[in-house]
Amino acid sequence: MLGLEPMRQDIEYISGVLDELEAVVQDASRVPMRKGRAVVDRADLLVMLDELRGSLPGELSEAEDIRRECAAVVAAAEEEARRIVEDAHERADAQVTDTELYRRSQRRAAETIDRAERYAREIEGGSEVYRDRVMGQLENWFEDSLVSVGESRQELTSSSPSLTKPKRPAEPRPAEEQDSEENRENGQGWRASSA
Fold first, then answer.
1. Whose CB among 38, 67, 88, 90 lies 3.0–4.6 Å from 28's, allowing a Cys bridge?
2. What pTM, to 2 d.p., does this model score?
3. 122-166 confidence digits (pLDDT tens)
4. Residue 139 Cα to chain centre, angstroms
5. Could you tell me the residue ranges of all domains in the chain?
6. What is the residue-wise DSSP string for 49-74?
């Protein structure tokens, strides 16, 4: 209770100084052609501001110091909390690798990868066998077709008298034309395309 009385007196004094300031501004002579402007005695105004500043309770400056200290403490606490959380995350990550569950999951992952790689090798080997088998069947089919075409030609040649007439000698042709002509006669004028 005793601390409140001086504070009340300080507040009354401050209120009085503010009233005087207001009166000085109200009574100031106006500047012609400048609405809202007035001429105030600078010395009087500065004296009143000094009185006002001097009458402010010391608690106000102490409160400002305390506010600054509190802000610094809060910032330091937040920084410490962030560091503690980071440290906890690092420890948790380190401890996870030491758990049996982690080791088991690593083993299962390695086994799964190994199985997948073996399966891929089996599929690759199977596709090579299949490819070789299909290509072999195609080769046999073509060989059988060539034999059949040759036999058919032989039968046609032996059964048709006009085809057995002796041919008259032809003029010599370039070797390239002779090769392509012979290939056509032998049934080899076709080209296989790869699928």
1. 38
2. 0.31
3. 888 888 888 888 888 888 888 888 888 888 888 888 876 555 555
4. 52
5. 10-56, 59-95, 99-158
6. HHHHHHHS-HHHHHHHHHHHHHHHHH
